[in-house]
Specification:
Length: about 190
């Protein structure tokens, strides 16, 4: 499931940029699909995720011990700093999020709940393993909290982080942690 999560980042970036090109009002320079695909696969955060998966595949446990300070210890610090900065941007821009109305707040909770519940149920047709079904449902009900916001900042600098960051970090993430995960798990336990 960790690999599935990592592999979901590139398609999310591709869809985001395609939607941006389709619906932006000032179509000054639309990106072609080749450029979108290239950016989504060569974005720094996506390359780091895919590279770490590749290292995990080829390295044995003894080799992994040698790079543990970089993969475990320092990574947590960098991740904390990155998430702190995202949280500060979210807090600064939360007032602009309010101007978008209740529709977006409902969307940030309702659509992930529908996705997570659907996958919690439908994943029973694919596997009986409760753990895999649960993680898959969480992924389906989640937003990208790290790679896609960073990539979209670069791909669409004119976009308002006061919109997409509060939706992902301020609504979808807390919903999934508090209500979504127990809901998905309940569905998995009571189906098939």
């Amino acid at each position: 499931m960790v690999a599935v999560m990592a592999l979901m980042e590139s398609p999310a970036i591709i869809v985001g940029v395609i939607l941006l090109n389709r619906y932006q009002t000032n179509k000054t320079k639309p990106s072609n699909f080749k450029n979108i695909l290239h950016h989504s696969l060569t974005n720094g955060s996506v390359l780091m995720i895919l590279g770490s998966l590749l290292i995990g595949i080829v390295a044995d446990s003894k080799q992994a011990e040698g790079i543990k300070p970089f993969t475990t210890d320092i990574f947590k610090g960098f991740l904390a700093i990155f998430l702190l900065e995202m949280g500060m941007i979210t807090a600064k821009r939360i007032s602009s999020f309010k101007t978008y109305g209740w529709f977006l707040a409902g969307f940030a909770i309702l659509i992930p709940a529908i996705n997570g519940c659907s996958v919690a149920y439908l994943s029973g047709f694919i596997t009986a393993d409760i753990g895999n079904r649960f993680i898959f449902a969480i992924l389906a009900g989640s937003a990208s909290y790290i790679a896609v916001p960073a990539a979209m900042r670069i791909a669409a600098p004119e976009s308002d982080p006061g919109l997409y960051l509060p939706m992902a970090l301020g609504l979808t993430f807390p919903f999934n942690i508090t209500l979504g995960m127990p809901l998905y798990y309940s569905i998995i336990q009571n189906t098939f």
